[in-house]
Amino acid sequence: MPIQQSDVLYTAVATAEHGRDGRVATDDGRLDVVVNPPEEMGGSGAGTNPEQLFAAGYSACFQGALGVVARQEGADVSGSTVTAKVGIGRNEDGFGIVVEICADIPNVDAATARRLVEQAHQVCPYSKATRGDVTVTLA
């Protein structure tokens, strides 16, 4: 269910110049990066790219969601990591992305880890935002 504007707690603002081959900066100056397409897409690969930025945001958000569900379950996720692998490729509409979320949760058994990851996928805002349009694989 979409949130209402009155329920927004924080808004991030970023502005791009020259698309995938330029610069992206936030309004508060905390992020200011050169972006370039990766070499695999004909770019120089000299800067970061939108897929890396999306992977960084998704992995951080998913790790937070994992912590929330772990607290609710009384599970120990200390020392855990979440890696997001974001791929881009051609589809019938031009380009699309695919995501693989890999969680390493050393202090729980495999079945508990799988359950926690699946629950985190249900509550993570990035997972919710991509649902129905992006293939997301959990590992």
Overall pLDDT: 95
Helix content: 25-40%
Rg calc: 17 Å
Label the overall shape: globular
Classified by CATH, the class of the largest domain is: Alpha Beta
- The strand order across the widest sheet is 1-2-3
| SSE succession | EEEHEEHHE
Which range does the strand content fall in?
25-35%
Going by CATH, what is the homologous superfamily of the largest domain? Answer: K homology (KH) domain
What is the fold named in CATH at topology level of the largest domain?
A: GMP Synthetase, Chain A, domain 3
**How far is the N terminus from the C terminus?**
26 Å
Number of strands: 6
Q: In terms of quaternary structure, what is this?
A: single chain
Unreliable stretches (pLDDT < 50, length at least 5) are none
Largest sheet: 3 strands, antiparallel
Question: What report would you give on this structure?
Answer:
- The structure is a single chain.
- With 139 residues, the chain is of the alpha+beta class.
- The chain has two domains: 1-48, N-terminal domain of TfIIb (Single Sheet); 49-138, K homology (KH) domain (GMP Synthetase, Chain A, domain 3), CATH 3.30.300.20.
- It contains three helices and six strands.
- It has helices at residues 50-73, 110-123, 125-130, and strands spanning 14-17, 22-26, 32-35, 81-91, 94-104, 135-138.
- The chain has a three-stranded antiparallel sheet, with no helix packed on it.
- A hairpin with a 2-residue loop joins strand 4 and strand 5.
- Helix 1 (50-73) crosses helix 2.
- The longest helix has 24 residues, at 50-73.
- It is globular, with a radius of gyration of 17 Å.
- The model has no long low-confidence stretch (mean pLDDT 95).
